[in-house]
């Protein structure tokens, strides 16, 4: 991206010419995260080319973030370095790629890989501009953190923070660095299970959005994005938390409205996706019921390499097919104020019905998943911050499309993360 190189050049020149860099250094921070990640997706359907998608990786993530130089316009830079190592060695080549490592056309999983990314930044008053490597976590542009390293984009992000409780965003990206890659590539619409005519690529995406905290009980989000010549998408989201005497009533409602844009390179796109999660939190317990439904001529569009930012984050399926209706029941328990403080447990059952597979006449397919999630973050002591997480899902469907994504499987993921803070 030429604009990011130009911005970095200007930034470097200013830094070298100023002696007032106290904020640049004094407010800096350096962290090193070690991440051990085991991934096993065991396919349950006969005739699969590989019995499972399986990898075991050791990753290192170094982040060096400067502060800002003094003055009306403060300047800074953030640098990230990643390194991943294959702990299964050549035996990983017997399995399908999991997204933890680059895989070539011969299904050979990389022994190791790494990269260095940078982001130049500027600050005026409370507002900021970031140019270079970005990891946006917005409903319409979501950088997936679900593998060894987070997916990131190349572009510019302007954030206005001048009004209390209001954040306004303007963002443009034109390249993506996928989770299992060290190279930037053009951004494409995901064509999961041939939901659209093609997984068309685009010259870039821009978005405008706002996050407004009405009060301590209500948070809202409004976003508009356009993947140039492919689709445009609007999002409205509301989260609430109210004390109703017997506990806290929680809501998370999300509406996506999508349609093709410009030259419509992926063909017709027309979808309205509505979902809501409603829960009661009482003490350490939270019980929730959720419902999602997809309307329109197509499924909801998302970008290649990420997940739809719906309230349901099943690790083996996205539950976002055309015409699909999804029912979800969830239970969470947090072991706070107990001897096991730092331990969290979640289980959830999801069922999707009335799935329309565009390539097949029948529109009554189904999918279901039973999820378990157990995590423990050591709250104090010498190992404070060590995080251990185990996830398992049993996913089944009756979809019949040849070569489809989201095949029936039993999936297990184990993570051990620890971060050193040097400043």
Fold and architecture overview:
Strand 1 (29-43) and strand 2 form a beta hairpin. The strands form 3 sheets. The protein has an 18-stranded antiparallel beta barrel. Strands 6-7 form a two-stranded antiparallel ribbon. A two-stranded antiparallel ribbon has the order 11-12. The model has no long low-confidence stretch (mean pLDDT 92). It has 2 helices and 23 strands. By secondary structure, it is mostly beta strands. It is globular and about 65 Å long. The protein has helices spanning 2-17, 22-26; strands at residues 29-43, 52-65, 73-86, 112-124, 127-134, 137-138, 141-142, 152-160, 166-177, 184-185, 187-188, 201-202, 205-215, 218-227, 231-243, 248-260, 270-282, 285-296, 325-334, 343-355, 365-377, 387-397, 409-421.
Which helices and strands occur, and which strands form pairs?
Elements: H1 2-17, H2 22-26, E1 29-43, E2 52-65, E3 73-86, E4 112-124, E5 127-134, E6 137-138, E7 141-142, E8 152-160, E9 166-177, E10 184-185, E11 187-188, E12 201-202, E13 205-215, E14 218-227, E15 231-243, E16 248-260, E17 270-282, E18 285-296, E19 325-334, E20 343-355, E21 365-377, E22 387-397, E23 409-421
Antiparallel strand pairs: 1-2, 1-23, 2-3, 3-4, 4-5, 5-8, 6-7, 8-9, 9-10, 9-13, 11-12, 13-14, 14-15, 15-16, 16-17, 17-18, 18-19, 19-20, 20-21, 21-22, 22-23
Please supply descriptive tags for the structure shown above.
two-stranded antiparallel sheet; 2 helices; mainly beta; 18-stranded antiparallel β-barrel; single chain; globular; 423 residues
Short summary:
The protein is mostly beta strands. It has helices at 2-17, 22-26, and strands spanning 29-43, 52-65, 73-86, 112-124, 127-134, 137-138, 141-142, 152-160, 166-177, 184-185, 187-188, 201-202, 205-215, 218-227, 231-243, 248-260, 270-282, 285-296, 325-334, 343-355, 365-377, 387-397, 409-421.
């Amino acid at each position: 991206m030429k604009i990011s190189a130009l911005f970095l050049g200007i930034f470097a020149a200013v830094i070298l010419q100023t002696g007032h860099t106290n904020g640049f250094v004094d407010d800096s921070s350096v962290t090193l995260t070690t991440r051990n990640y085991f991934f096993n997706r065991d396919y349950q359907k006969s005739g699969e080319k590989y019995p499972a998608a399986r990898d075991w990786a050791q990753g290192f993530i170094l982040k060096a973030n400067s502060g800002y130089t003094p003055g009306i316009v403060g300047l800074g830079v953030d640098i990230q370095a990643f390194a991943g190592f294959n702990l299964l060695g050549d035996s990983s080549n017997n399995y399908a790629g999991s997204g933890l490592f680059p895989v070539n056309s011969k299904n050979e999983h990389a022994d190791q890989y790494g990269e260095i990314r940078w982001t130049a930044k500027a600050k005026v008053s409370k507002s900021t501009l970031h140019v270079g490597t970005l990891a946006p976590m917005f409903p319409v542009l979501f950088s997936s953190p679900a593998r060894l390293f987070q997916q990131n984009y190349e572009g510019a992000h302007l954030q206005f923070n001048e009004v209390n409780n209001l954040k306004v965003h303007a963002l443009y990206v034109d390249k993506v660095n996928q989770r299992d890659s060290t190279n930037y590539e053009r951004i494409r619409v995901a064509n999961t299970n041939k939901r659209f005519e093609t997984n068309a690529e685009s010259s870039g995406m821009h978005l405008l959005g706002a996050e407004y905290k009405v009060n301590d009980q209500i948070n809202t989000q409004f976003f508009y994005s356009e993947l140039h010549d492919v689709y445009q998408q609007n999002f409205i989201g509301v989260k609430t938390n109210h004390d109703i005497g017997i506990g806290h009533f929680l809501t998370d409602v999300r509406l996506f409205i999508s349609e093709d844009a410009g030259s419509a390179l992926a063909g017709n796109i027309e979808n309205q996706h509505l979902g809501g999660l409603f829960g009661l939190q009482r003490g350490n317990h939270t019980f929730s019921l959720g419902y999602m439904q997809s309307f329109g001529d197509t499924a909801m569009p998302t970008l290649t390499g990420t997940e739809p930012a719906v309230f349901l984050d099943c690790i083996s399926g996205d539950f976002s097919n055309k015409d699909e209706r999804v029912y979800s029941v969830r239970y969470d328990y947090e072991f706070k104020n107990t001897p096991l403080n730092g331990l969290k447990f979640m289980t959830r059952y999801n069922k999707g019905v009335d799935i329309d597979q565009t390539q097949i006449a029948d529109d009554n397919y189904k999918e279901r998943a039973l999820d378990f999630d157990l995590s423990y973050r050591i709250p104090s002591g010498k190992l404070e911050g060590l995080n251990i997480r185990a996830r398992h899902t049993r996913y089944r469907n009756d979809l019949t499309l040849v070569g489809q994504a989201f095949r029936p499987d039993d999936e297990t993921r184990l993570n051990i993360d620890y971060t050193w803070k040097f400043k």
